[in-house]
Write a structure and sequence with these properties.
The chain is α+β, with helices and mostly antiparallel strands. The protein has helices at 49-74, 84-93, 95-104, 112-138, 148-164, 200-204, 209-221; strands spanning 9-10, 170-173, 178-183, 192-193, 226-231, 238-244. The chain has a domain at 112-244: Muramoyl-pentapeptide Carboxypeptidase, domain 2. The chain contains 7 helices and 6 strands, in the order βαααααβββααββ. A hairpin with a 6-residue loop joins strand 5 (226-231) and strand 6 (238-244). The chain starts with 8 loop residues before the first strand and ends in a 5-residue tail after the last strand. This is Transport protein particle component-domain-containing protein. Belongs to the TRAPP small subunits family. BET3 subfamily. One of its GO terms (cellular component) is TRAPP complex.
Length: 249
């Protein structure tokens, strides 16, 4: 699916003039600031929720653009030296020969599946690094987790509240390394709409790849190697399935 065919309408109102970018030694919080942390304090640092929403919306089309541009540059033909006899033959053949040569040496386009895989890898790896950084920053004051279920609960409550301003609505597990997290009102989907019959579920799927990376990176930072898959059956809900990978000694 190319970004040119996407017709999702993101009906969000952003006031860019109010965005505050994170500074070093950031005290990250979505709560209302209390004294002495206020807008007039030059040393205060805040993270705007609108900034995060805007980033989540723009990540997917940005990833498609980068993949498309990278593929286009990689497929350009390598220039070769042209001899005098070849120049004379080209002039004799005229513009028709040049046009045919351009078609033969034109850029090789990726098919839809290859494009999706490339975009998934880019978004998932971005989220992976973000998840690692979040855990490194916000688990410093906590004792080390010793139980996998406690780690998953930390992910569902603290980390989800930090990133998406709410907790996971439902957590299920088979107690054999598989965990299913359900968010009935996934924040990035709350501002999406499409025309009737516009396959909103399919077009919303790429917006789950970055959160999948966040989950996998956070778990990896806490010592759990896992695979993460996500799907949505109806907007704005989303379901994430975590499967822990046990390494054989």
């Amino acid at each position: 699916m190319s970004q040119h065919n996407t017709s999702l309408h993101l009906t969000s109102q952003f006031r860019l003039s109010q965005l505050r970018l994170p500074l070093p030694n950031l005290k990250m919080s979505f709560d209302s600031p209390i004294p002495p942390y206020n807008a007039s304090d030059p040393s205060a640092s805040f993270l705007s929720a609108s900034c995060l929403d805007l980033m989540m919306i723009e990540l997917v089309p940005m990833a498609y653009r980068i993949v498309h541009d990278t593929t286009s540059h990689a497929s350009l033909p390598t220039p070769t030296p042209v001899t005098g006899s070849e120049k004379s033959r080209s002039r004799a053949a005229g513009p028709v020969a040049v046009a045919v040569a351009g078609e033969v040496a034109g850029e090789k386009k990726m098919d839809e599946e290859e494009e999706r895989e490339a975009v998934f890898y880019r978004l998932e790896m971005l989220g992976y690094r973000v998840g690692q950084g979040l855990v490194e920053r916000f688990s410093l004051v906590r004792p080390r987790f010793t139980d996998t279920l406690d780690i998953i609960k930390f992910l569902c409550k603290d980390l989800w509240m930090l990133v998406f301003r709410k907790q996971i609505d439902n957590l299920k597990t088979n107690h054999r390394g598989v965990y299913v997290l359900t968010d009935n009102s996934f924040r990035p989907f709350a501002k999406m709409s499409t025309e009737p019959g516009g396959n909103a579920v399919g077009r919303a799927q790429p917006f789950l790849w970055f959160p999948c990376g966040i989950i996998r990176g956070a778990l990896a930072s806490m010592g759990i190697n896992a695979t993460v898959q996500a799907e949505t059956a109806e907007l704005p809900g989303a379901t994430f399935q975590i499967k822990s990978i046990t390494t054989k000694p």
